[in-house]
Design a protein that fits this description.
Helix content is 75%, strand content 0%. It is an all-alpha fold. The protein has one domain: Amino acid/polyamine transporter I (Up-down Bundle). Helix 1 runs parallel beside helix 10 (225-254) and helix 8 (150-174) packs antiparallel against helix 13.
């Protein structure tokens, strides 16, 4: 394949079913499950309702993205699907919003990584400067790895995914023997109505499913993408859902909500309470591996999405230039520079505070792409005059409606302040789109 095509170069068609499933699972199972029990403790056991609803919604979205990957094979994932279904401007807004979600997600994962490194190395926990250095160092180490190539990133993803699942499986199975049923009462400690508490918890838990569409983004680098991507996406979501619900149920049952809410390394504290300090250290080590793997996966995507958009001339051309390794180095560097700035801006809130602020922004930025992709298949088929009728039309319409309603409900749960800030970031893209249209028209005339 020529070097100027998407995902070309030495790494083309480097990702099979195992690597794609690892990309999906690795991008989802990371900072979310390792830090979210502390964030969710503010709601109490009712937060498990948020997990159940979010898991159902994520599975619907996984099916939607799997079907879309069979219709559209170009690089870019949600951006490519939206552009195909709704047109250039909608595609641009989704590329912009999804790109924001990716680099803000990188910032959130890096903060969680610093929290667990601090559990292992008390000097890091005691120093905000050291914690910040850990977060930024991880971002830039993995930026360099991804500049080296997609295949190298895929190998790291498989290894870290296997290693991260082991401690989580231990907690999510054996941990039930240490559960104290008294910790499940009262059900709701948030002071909000049950519906409001579940909605707010769901907005946070959706963070743990961001990345469910990961296998669709580097489509040009996937072996047999029409079969591999749908399978990897659905398998990945099912694995993640089982792990999330089991582990959170144990965490809430082992430690009181007031204790859990104050922890910067909640699963390590849970393991230490159950099995002693050695296990606390082992779980913290597993969390470092997990968040490192998630950071690696999101870093790969922060290059692929702007690269795909640049190939269609809706992002600046500099984002579409490949390095000598065949990777979008400019896009990787610029995206993670923004992630680094976001980490620095929010670190003064403390680890859990910074994590909550960043992930809500990442969730909000992802919900618009998810909402539009929900109906993208219907739009693509109607535009292509593929004759959807009867049961086929009903199935696509029902699936899209469920995905859209779920995305809207999760957006409501994000809160007014987060929606306001996220909307401002997305609206800020309009001048860039106008400039790109002017620049492209000028280039065509010259």
């Amino acid at each position: 394949m020529p070097s100027n095509t998407a995902n070309s170069g030495p790494d083309t068609r480097a990702l099979g079913l195992m690597a794609c499933t690892a990309l999906v699972v690795g991008n989802m199972i990371g900072s979310g499950i390792f830090l979210l029990p502390a964030s969710l403790a503010a709601f109490g056991p009712i937060a498990l309702g948020g997990w159940l609803l979010t898991s159902a919604g994520a599975l619907i979205l996984a099916i939607i993205f799997g079907r879309l990957s069979q219709l559209v094979s170009k690089t870019g994932g949600p951006y490519a699907y939206t552009q195909e279904g709704y047109g250039e401007f909608a595609g641009f807004l989704i590329a912009w919003g999804y790109w924001i979600a990716l680099w803000t997600g990188n910032a959130g994962v890096a903060v969680a990584l610093a929290g667990y490194v601090g559990f292992l190395v008390p000097e890091v926990a005691a120093s905000q400067s050291y914690s910040l250095a850990v977060a930024l160092g991880a971002i830039w180490l993995l930026t360099l790895v991804n500049i080296r190539g997609v295949k190298e990133a895929g190998v790291i993803q498989v290894i870290t995914t296997v290693l991260k699942l082991l401690p989580l499986i231990l907690i999510g199975t054996l941990g039930f023997f240490w559960v104290d049923l008294a910790n499940y009462s009262p059900l709701n400690v948030s002071g909000q109505s049950n519906l409001s508490a579940i909605s707010a918890a769901a907005a946070l838990t959706l963070w743990a499913y961001l990345g469910l569409e990961s296998a669709t983004v580097p489509s040009g680098a996937v072996i047999n993408p029409e079969k591999t991507i749908p399978r990897a996406t659905i398998i990945g979501v099912l694995i993640a859902a089982a792990v999330y619900i089991a582990v959170t149920t144990v965490a809430i049952g082992v430690l009181p909500s007031t204790t859990l809410a104050q922890s910067s390394a909640p699963l390590a504290d849970v393991a230490e309470h159950m099995w002693g300090s050695t296990w606390g250290v082992l779980i913290a080590l597993g969390a470092v591996i997990a968040t490192f793997g998630t950071l690696n996966g999101f870093t790969l995507l922060t290059g692929q999405v702007p690269y795909g958009a640049a190939q269609d001339r809706v992002f600046p051309a500099s984002m579409g230039r490949l390095s000598r390794f065949g990777t979008p180095a400019n896009a990787l560097v610029f995206s993670n520079l923004l992630a680094s700035i976001l980490v620095i801006m929010n670190f003064s809130q403390g680890l859990v505070g910074a994590f909550n602020s960043i992930i809500l922004l990442a969730v909000m930025s992802s919900l618009l792409p998810y909402a539009l992709c929900a109906f993208a298949e219907l739009m693509i088929r109607l535009k292509g005059k593929q004759g959807l009728q009867g049961v086929g039309l009903f199935k696509v319409g029902l699936l899209g409606s469920l995905g859209f309603l779920y995305s809207g409900w999760a957006l409501y749960g994000s809160g007014a302040e987060t929606v306001f800030l996220g909307t401002l970031l997305i609206v800020a893209a309009v001048p860039l789109h106008v400039w790109m249209k002017w620049h492209n028209a000028r280039a065509e005339r010259s």
